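User: I'm curious whether this sequence folds into something compact or stays loose and floppy. Could you predict its structure so I can see for myself?
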Amino acid sequence: MKVRQFKLGPMDNFSYLVWDEDTLDAAVIDPAWQPEPLAQALKAEKLKLRAVLLTHAHPDHVNAVGFFTALDKDLPVHLHEADHHMLENQPKTLKPAVDGEKIEAGALKLQVLHTPGHTPGSVCYRAGQAVFTGDTLFIGECGRVDLPGSSAEALYDSFVKLAALPDAAAVYPGHSYNGDTSTFGVQKEYNLYLKLAKQGRKADFLKAVS
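Assistant: Here's the prediction. I'll summarize afterward.
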């Protein structure tokens, strides 16, 4: 499996292309702002786009979905049901991303980890040793919990779940804050929020995010 990270737009968003090297089946994660570089990479690598996966429904992570669904009206778009109401332009191919399920994008398989907190329907996607964390986990930081629908307590539970992932797994966040990628092993040591969640220190976590 291969991963390509694209920094796009005025908020240093990350969009991702993920693909199976044998079949060239591909998925786009959080297409936003400038879909052209993604489309160019798909063409250059001769990839077959099988799905769009959304970590949550905030506009800065979804505003280029329509570009890809216009090219393929049957293209599945996956988003947790709790965030469906936030999506202004819902494609007819919108599907729920269900906790624990493996989404199949051709030969490519990505597991859904429901990680609410930043939004009720926030998810991370795990493919092999890569975990796409959206606005749940950043390098050295956590997602905001001062927005409508966000919850510090839910984010704590999500961080407990993420702290159980293998140290070798790679973190691919939704924004370029403090860095572009890391590993869970490094983040468990240096990310205050993940460290507190791993240690079960809920009160300290809630104080830190407030």
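Summary: The domain at 2-209 is CATH 3.60.15.10 (Metallo-beta-lactamase; Chain A). The radius of gyration is 16 Å.
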